Amino acid sequence: MRVNILGVTVDTYSMSETAEKIKLAVSAQRPIRVVTANPEIIYASQYNWALKNVINSADIITADGIGVVWAARQLGTQIEERVTGIDLVQSLFPIANAEKWRMYFLGGRPGIAEQAVKQVAEDYPGIVFHTSHGYFQPHEESGILKEICEFRPDVLLVGLGAPRQEFWLAEHPGLTFVGIGVGGSFDALAGTVRRAPKQFQDLHIEWLYRLLKEPWRWKRQTVLPRFLFKVLWQRLKS
């Protein structure tokens, strides 16, 4: 089931349901594209029809953030839990380890994806990894595409930042069975960026922790009240 939030159709799947659908896609060798939709990218799609089309054409669109879960409930649809990019990736590692998946990390500053793989491989030695940083030049892209094709990943994680990663995956179909835009997940996996403490996560105020640690993000955080207002306006109109 999906809920229409400002014109973006978000799936109501739980984390375990999303992971299971990805597992089935890999097992069936059926290519799918996954978008983790947070309030920021949903709000941005209001003013970018190409972005909205790219999001809505994905096979799975997760509720990335408590703001999206709240929005769905305001619009009459229950979403059990948020399915963020980093949490989804971490939920896939045990499955990938058991199934001996091949996973490609594309994105981050030079060295970050490699460090992330080093950390993950300690706990999940059954996964075969390959990496490439996200600071490639246009003339280098063909080489990266060739490398991905030769590696034949089951899952391609693209951390180029939104919305670049969403457009990039849509523009390059057929590279993998499952392609997921994961934002800054590689930094978190590598340990170069600390996630909010569990207390902040349980209270669904990770955004506040990030703002306290990185006050220069305040302009980005102003999207949230504008997103909430638009959702309430959508509810009023409906």
Automatic annotation (TrEMBL):
GO biological process, one term: cell wall organization
EC code: 2.4.1.187
Family matches, as InterPro entries: TagA_TarA (IPR034714), WecG_TagA_CpsF (IPR004629)
Any Pfam family hit: Glyco_tran_WecG
Pathway(s) this gene product operates in, as recorded in its UniProt entry: Cell wall biogenesis; teichoic acid biosynthesis
Catalysed reaction equations from the record: UDP-N-acetyl-alpha-D-mannosamine + N-acetyl-alpha-D-glucosaminyl-di-trans,octa-cis-undecaprenyl diphosphate = N-acetyl-beta-D-mannosaminyl-(1->4)-N-acetyl-alpha-D-glucosaminyl di-trans,octa-cis-undecaprenyl diphosphate + UDP + H(+)
Organism superkingdom: Bacteria
Entry keywords, A to Z: Cell wall biogenesis/degradation, Glycosyltransferase, Teichoic acid biosynthesis, Transferase
GO molecular function: N-acetylglucosaminyldiphosphoundecaprenol N-acetyl-beta-D-mannosaminyltransferase activity
Top enzyme class: transferase
Purpose: Catalyzes the conversion of GlcNAc-PP-undecaprenol into ManNAc-GlcNAc-PP-undecaprenol, the first committed lipid intermediate in the de novo synthesis of teichoic acid.
NCBIfam families (UniProt xref): wecG_tagA_cpsF (TIGR00696)
Similarity comment: family membership: Belongs to the glycosyltransferase 26 family. TagA/TarA subfamily.
Protein name (database record): N-acetylglucosaminyldiphosphoundecaprenol N-acetyl-beta-D-mannosaminyltransferase
Organism: Desulfosporosinus acidiphilus (strain DSM 22704 / JCM 16185 / SJ4)
